[in-house]
Amino acid sequence: xxxxxxxxxxxxxxxxxxxxxxxxxxxxxxxxxxxxxxxxxxxxxxxxxxxxxxxxxxxxxxxxxxxxxxxxxxxxxxxxxxxxxxxxxxxxxxxxxxxxxxxxxxxxxxxxxxxxxxxxxxxxxxxxxxxxxxxxxxxxxxxxxxxxxxxxxxxxxxxxxxxxxxxxxxxxxxxxxxxxxxxxxxxxxxxxxxxxxxxxxxxxxxxxxxxxxxxxxxxxxxxxxxxxxxxxxxxxxxxxxxxxxxxxxxxxxxxxxxxxxxxxxxxxxxxxxxxxxxxxxxxxxxxxxxxxxxxxxxxxxxxxxxxxxxxxxxxxxxxxxxxxxxxxxxxxxxxxxxxxxxxxxxxxxxxxxxxxxxxxxxxxxxxxxxxxxxxxxxxxxxxxxxxxxxxxxxxxxxxxxxxxxxxxxxxxxxxxxxxxxxxxxxxxxxxxxxxxxxxxxxxxxxxxxxxxxxxxxxxxxxxxxxxxxxxxxxxxxxxxxxx
Length: 483
Description:
Elements: E1 4-7, E2 16-21, H1 34-45, E3 50-54, E4 59-64, H2 71-91, E5 96-101, H3 108-118, H4 129-132, E6 138-141, H5 145-166, H6 174-188, E7 191-195, H7 197-202, H8 206-212, E8 220-226, E9 237-241, E10 243-247, H9 268-283, E11 289-298, E12 310-312, E13 318-320, H10 328-338, E14 346-351, H11 355-361, E15 366-370, H12 374-387, E16 391-393, H13 399-402, E17 411-412, H14 420-429, E18 436-440, E19 446-447, E20 457-458, H15 463-480
Parallel strand pairs: 1-6, 2-4, 2-5, 5-6, 9-11, 9-14, 10-11, 13-17, 14-18, 15-16
Antiparallel strand pairs: 3-4, 7-8, 8-11, 12-13, 15-18, 19-20
C-alpha cells in the first residue's frame, strides 16, 4: 500500500506536523513551547535546517529553506527532505502527517512528492509482507484539489512503472506484461490493443520477430491509446517504450561479471510509457497520447538469431546483425515505423538502450537526442529540470550515421565503441519521418542503492518528466486555442 496525499483540514493539523519555513519565519505561531522555540533557534543558529521535535503525543518536523538557489534545485531539495522525513515517520510508526507551508514557493507539493515516492515498497514476494509494510499511509497538504489530483496521479504512474521493472521474469513474461497492461488500462481509463505473433508477422516486424526467435514465449506488440473527448491536440503524441522483459544478450551472451543480474530492468522504457499513460488518464489530462510497446525476451535459444544474420525490418530496411545484445534498437525500430501510421505531432521513445549512456553521464540524467525543433526540445528540457529528471542533450551530427553503414546490408545494428549512445540513436532515426526525441534511460532506470526518493531497483524515471511536459502542453493549447 502506497501513501496517498490528501487535502488538509482543521483536524489533520492537530496531529503529526511538518512545518516548512525560512530563516525569517515566526515559529511562535505554531503552538510550540518556549523551550521548543529556544531549541529551534539554537539549531538554526548552528546551521541546521532540518529539526525534529518529539512532543511524545506527536512529532513536529521543522524544515527551513533558503531561496538563494535556482528554483528547480530548491524543489529538488524539498523532495529530498521529504524522503528523509518519510524514513523518520516509518521508524516512529507515524501513519498520518500534515504539512504546513509558510514558504513563498509552495514547497509542500515537492516535500509531499518526495515523501510519497520514498515510501514505495515492492513486497509482493515476501511471505510476511504485511509485517514489512511502512507505517506512513497519509500525507495531508493544503492545496487546490486539482494540484493534489495531479500529484497523486503522477506518483501512482511512477510507482506502477517501478512495479513492472521490479517484477522478475518468472512472473512478467511478454504475455503477462500485456495482461497487466490491459488490467491497468481498464482501471485507469486508457484503451489497450494487444497484437500477438500472427499479427506481428503480418506486419513484417522483422526486428521484433528476430529478437524473439530464441525466447520461450511469443512476442506481443501493445498499443495503448488515451484520447479523451476534450483532447487539445488533433494529431497524437506517440510514446514508444522498449519492452525487453529479460535480456541475456542472446547468442552474444553478456560477458561482463554480474551483468545479467539486473536485466529484468530492460523493460524500463516500456514501464515508463505505461506509467505515463496511467498518470495522464488518472489526472484526465486533455491530450491525445498513444503508447507503443514491443515486448519479448532476448535469449540464446535453439532458434536464436545469430551475429552475421541479415534481417528485414518492418519498413523494408535490411540490417546486418553484428551483436545480438544490441537488440533493443531492433524492436524499437519496428515500433517507430508503426508510429508513422498516426501522422504524429511528436514521437518520444524511452529505452534502457546502451551501456555507453551509463558511462557518459551515470545515473544522474537521461541521455537525449532527436529531430524536434528547438521550441519542443526546450520545453522537454524545462520539464526535465522541473522534475529533476534532467536531460543531457547529445550532439546528433550526420557523421555518426556513417558509422552504421554495412558492407552487405542497408545498416548494421552496431557502431564502434566510441559514442555508442549516439550511434544507437542514429540507428533509430533511420526509421522516423516525424519530429522525434530519443531518451536513453539506461543510467537512472534501475539503481543498486537508494538515492533519496529514488529507491533501489526500478525508479520509474521519465514518468514525472513527461507528465509535466504533457500537462503544460495541454494548458498552453487550451489557452492559445492551438492544436
